[in-house]
Amino acid sequence: MSKEVTIEVCAFNLESCINAEKGGAGRIELCGNPTEGGTTPAPGVLIQARNLVNIKLYPIIRPRGGYYFYSADEIESIRQDILFCKNIGCDGISIGAQKIDGSLDLDLCKRFVEWAYPMKATLNKAFDLSPNLQESLELAIVAGFERVLTSGAKKAAIDALDILGGLMKQAGERIIIMPGCGLRSYNVAKIAMATHASEYHSAARIDIANPLTYQNPLVHDLGAVFNASAEEVRLIKANAEAALQ
Fold first, then answer.
1. Which of 107, 142, 140 is nearest to 124 (CA)?
2. What's the alpha-carbon Rg for the chain, to the nearest Å?
3. Mean pLDDT of 115-123
4. 6-243 maps to which CATH number?
5. 147 near 178, Cβ under 8 Å?
6. Is 227:34 a contact under the CB 8 Å cutoff?
7. CA–CA separation, 144 vs 132, rounded Å?
8. Cβ neighbours of residue 27 under 8 Å, at least 6 residues apart?
9. What is the separation, in whole angstroms, between the first and last Cα of the chain?
10. What is the Cβ-side half-sphere exposure of residue 93, based on CA atoms within 13 angstroms?
11. Rounded Cα gap, residues 14 and 216, in angstroms
12. What DSSP string describes 142-183?
């Protein structure tokens, strides 16, 4: 009998939220701005996502792209965003903070977790940007995070199998380690066999062509639309569970 796993889909729009649920995901990390790695979604998007899906919703709380060292004004905006997510019925948040030396800011992370309660909190890729993953994992546990999203400080999770395995052993039952970044149906089995993780994170995305019949050829700042594929979500879940039989 295969081990049941949870797939978290990194969704950048409402259609992706719907597709994530259709594909069997257990949780959505809802983000804005895919080209910057994800920032706090707009309030209207958050409200509508909560109305549309019944699975767990963990918006990323990140006021801008770039590093995770925040000013006092940014911290206050983060607090307001956390309270907004709590008020509309989100289940948790994805968040993190660094000190000026790149290490995790334990005190600020504790405040984030406290502000979020009774919502849960995932430590986002601020973890991978820290200089010492083993030390940061212990700080994440002290801060009260439910899980850590990590690619083992590599570009993609598939490139850090030994590191992820070590983090799993270090974490034990104290915190969830969720491999993510570059994770797709064609490589999740290898990641699962190396880590035996119970949760996996993927955008499961496909590029969506512009449906408009006219597009000004002189305008090139539209960006792209990335939708999660329900079928890719299903395959990720099935392949991970099969690998853990």
1. 140
2. 18
3. 98
4. 3.20.20.380
5. yes
6. no
7. 19
8. 6, 7, 8, 9, 55, 56, 57, 58, 91
9. 6
10. 31
11. 26
12. HHT-SEEEE-TTSSSGGG-HHHHHHHHHHHTTSSEEEEBSS-
Query: Which residue is listed with tokens 């290490």?
Result: 103
Query: Pairing relation of β-strands 147-150 and 120-123?
Result: parallel
Q: pTM value?
A: 0.94
Before 118, cis peptide (omega within 30)?
yes
**Residue bearing tokens 């199998």:** 161
Q: What is the mean pLDDT of the chain?
A: 95
Output the pLDDT for position 221: 73
141: its two tokens: 């546990």
Domains of the chain, residue spans: 6-243
Q: What are phi and psi for residue 180, nearest 5 degrees? A: -165, 170
Distance CA 130, CA 114 (A): 22
DSSP H helices, 13-132, are 14-22, 43-52, 72-87, 106-116
- 48-94 confidence digits (pLDDT tens): 999 999 999 999 999 999 999 999 999 999 999 999 999 999 999 99
Q: Which tokens sit at 18?
A: 């719907």
Q: Which two tokens mark 84?
A: 């907004």
Q: Residue 48: which of 94, 6, 90 has the closest Cα?
A: 90
Type of residue numbered 205:
R
Contact by Cβ (8 Å): 54, 64:
no
Cβ-contact 194, 159 below 8 angstroms: no
Q: Which residue has the tokens 């993927």?
A: 202
**Going by C-beta distance under 8 Å and a sequence separation of 6 or more, which residues neighbour residue 242?**
2, 189
